[in-house]
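ingest -> validate -> predict -> emit
validate: passed (alphabet ok, no gaps, 106 aa)
predict: started
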Amino acid sequence: MIPAELEARTAEKIAELEGLGFQVVEVPAYRVNLRKERAWPGISYVNALVIDEQVFVPRFGLGEAEDGIFRLVQARLPPGYTIVPVDAQRVRIRNGGLHCLAGLVR
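emit:
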């Protein structure tokens, strides 16, 4: 169960981003206990990278469940945009998400 204060803050931030002209695409989270202290937030963290009309997103190796999420997100993207899954394990061992890694490569 998501704490009410977290849901309210999330809705507030989404509205703020949309007010700045961003399109927010919500990605389903794999449920974790949000009230319990943990060292790592889990696999619901997404740090994507958009280059031209390609959206690079992490792939966590979850099979059909993950492929279904990619199809849902693809359906919400503007025409011409394509989802490009990238092995998240290979990105994480290089200290960050896809966006961070692209900064290192430049």
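The first helix runs from residue 4 to 19.
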